[in-house]
Write a structure and sequence with these properties.
160 residues; mainly alpha; 2 domains; two-stranded antiparallel sheet; 75% helix
Length: 160
């Protein structure tokens, strides 16, 4: 389990409403203890996902390596959960899937930083290519809609 403390949360400038909400839920900072480790699953239970993800920046120093590994694996899971959206549009482009695979291997100590950087760059290029394709398709659709509307105007004027 990964932990934070009230002291670490203040040092990282936690937002006051979330800090107060959590403190109240655990009986107050004084009662809980300023340096008492707070398991992040407790933050998740009380404050939800967004605050728990934010708390990853304020973990116990000795848990930073574990935090980095778990955060990378979580990011891989999130990316993988929407990967089909990309693959449906670009079925022959495996760069994002490969980037996720390499990121998982890196998190497990089985890929180098160079491999991770190369996979990240390839995935970024895939995203850029997909965005360019989407922008081009949107521009084409807008042009066709304008042309259709213009033709409709001419046809209606002619019918008068």
């Amino acid at each position: 389990m990964i932990h934070t403390t009230f002291k670490l949360l203040r040092k990282a400038n936690a937002c006051k409403p979330s800090y107060v909400k959590f403190a109240k839920a655990v009986g107050g900072v004084k009662a809980y203890g300023d340096n008492t480790p707070i398991p992040l699953d407790k933050v998740l239970e009380i404050n939800g996902l967004d605050d728990t993800l934010w708390c990853l920046r304020a973990v116990l120093p000795e848990e930073c390596v574990t935090r980095d590994r778990l955060a990378r694996l979580f990011a891989c899971d999130c990316a993988e959960s929407v990967l089909t959206l990309f693959e449906n549009q670009h079925p022959k482009d495996n760069r994002p899937r490969e980037a996720i695979r390499i990121a998982r291997l890196f998190a497990q100590g089985e890929a180098t930083i160079e491999q991770l950087d190369a996979a990240r760059d390839a995935a970024r290029d895939a995203a850029r290519d997909a965005a360019r394709d989407a922008a081009s398709a949107a521009a084409s659709a807008a042009e066709r809609a304008w042309q259709s509307q213009r033709l409709l105007t001419y046809l209606r004027e002619e019918a008068k």
